[in-house]
Amino acid sequence: MEGSVFTPSLEGMKHVKSEAGEMLTRPFLDVCKLILPVIDKFGAAMALVKSDIGGNISRLEDKYSSNPTQFNLLYSMVEVEVAAKTAKGSSSCTNGLLWLTRAMDFLVELFRNLLQHPDWTMSQVCTDSYGKTLKQWHGWLASSSFSLAMKLAPDRKKFTEVISGSGDVGADMEAFCTNFSPFLEENHKFLASKGLDNLKAS
Fold first, then answer.
1. Backbone angles phi, psi at 189, to 5 degrees
2. Contacts of 82 (CB under 8 A, 6+ apart)
3. 98 with 77: CB under 8 angstroms?
4. Cα(168)–Cα(181) distance, rounded to whole angstroms?
């Protein structure tokens, strides 16, 4: 493998914004998709996260495909649903974008923990990241399932070997966190401006 598992997503990030600085739907979803192979390396511990991310990407991609011109900009899907008063529905694209962004927050936090706490076990890394990001939005059931899954986290040394490839995985991981975080913050800011950033799981 050329570079690390982060190389494709780092390349993809260069295309997320239009020349006018707007978030583009397809490139943003592509970056989220390109990080899925990293999640695969966690095995069973991340099965829930992966299916959640995959489901939300598919929902947004389907909407985009229905009218690529109308939905070229990521937030246009939300605008349409806000106007139709369907944004808060559990199967809305707004909900899909919100949960996709939250799941990505969790991954960024997880990678940060790996970089900042070399002495932590993988289980500690995952549990701390979950507590800082997704946990406050999850109901009891999701929270219990998640906590259980985190106990299945792989051995840290093995995980690092698997994701390294031929690149400098530490530098790439750091670059991913640094470059991707502003996109996620922008999503939250936009959703908050519509009063839609604090929806909880039922």
1. -60, -45
2. 94, 194, 196
3. no
4. 20
The tokens for 192 are: 């908050």
pLDDT bin (cut points 50, 70, 90) of residue 154 is confident
CA–CA separation, 16 and 31 (whole Å): 8
Q: Kindly report, residue by residue over 10-36, the tens digit of the pLDDT.
A: 999 999 999 999 999 999 999 999 999
Are the C-beta atoms of residues 75 and 92 closer than 8 Å to each other?
no
Tokens, residue 71: 């939905």
Q: Which residues contact 79 (CB under 8 A, 6 or more apart)?
A: none
pTM of the model: 0.91
Q: Is 21 left (phi over 0), alpha (psi -120 to 50) or beta?
A: left
pLDDT in tens, 127-145: 899 889 988 888 777 778 7
Whether 185 and 133 have beta carbons less than 8 Å apart is answered as: no
Q: 73 by DSSP, 3-state: which?
A: strand
Token code pair at residue 76 = 């246009």
